[in-house]
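An instance follows:
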Amino acid sequence: MAWFTTSDLEEFLAAAGGFLRSRPAEHTVALTVAEDLRRRGLTTYGVDV
């Protein structure tokens, strides 16, 4: 699989969400950040992605 970047949260979750959720204890930070961005918006951490 090739690497790519995206600023589209839904695209990221579509591509990586299943993998991240398959082992939630190991991916807690990524899952938490993604959920915060989804719920609160892309400026949640002060930077518009």
